[in-house]
Amino acid sequence: MDFVGIDKFSLLDYEDKIACVLFCKPCNFRCPFCHNGTTVLEAETTIPFEDILEYLETRKGLIDAVVVSGGEPTLMPDLKEKIIKLKEMGFLIKLDTNGTNPEVVKDLYESNLIDYVAMDIKNSFRKYSITAGVKNLDLTKISQTIQYLMTCGIDYEFRTTLIDEFHDASDMSDIAQTIKGAKRLYLQKFVDRESCIQRGLHEVSKEKAEQFVEILKPYIDKVSLRGY
What we know:
By secondary structure, this protein is of the alpha/beta class. The chain has a domain at 5-161: Aldolase class I (TIM Barrel, Alpha-Beta Barrel), CATH 3.20.20.70. 32% of the residues lie in helices and 20% in strands. The protein contains 8 helices and 8 strands; from the N terminus they run ββααβαβαβααβαβαβ. α7 links the parallel β6 and β7 (184-189). α4 packs parallel to α6 (140-151) and α7 (169-178) packs parallel to α8 (206-216). The termini are far apart.
């Protein structure tokens, strides 16, 4: 399965690293606020993987890492084979995931193929389905991925995109308990873009986001705002 998008130069997707970001199409969520909605729902043009490898060959020494994003990368049937080739080129690998496939994350890490994982924490579990855009969502796998990342030794971050219609102080309290003891959590500013699956949603104000940080700080090693 080929990727459907590429950001050839990013200083934002892998902290302190210069990265190239690859986007896959398949996703098992339909988050209304997803910035990659056009990719997830409509993308038809793919980028041959050999073209990506050829490009990255010219960027050795200039790019530190490759970020595999989506969509949901763990749904790609040949994800491991692709990462092996990227890793053989000497790049650090960051995986973005919604956490619904803990077995894939575990296999990649224990095969020494990923260096960093960013997992989305969409919301408190009681509001997860509506925030992820999926009815009757089974949260078991998500819980398993959370626990695996917190205990396996890999470097990781959790991140929550704040939506005024979806997130309040009680949700932050629930999230704090769900990921209590986590290494880091970023609260991300939402921007309403044309590529979002649902238009018209609103960002959480900086003042309210800072209040959310104070709720979370006693339970998580590092809580920061991103994009504010």
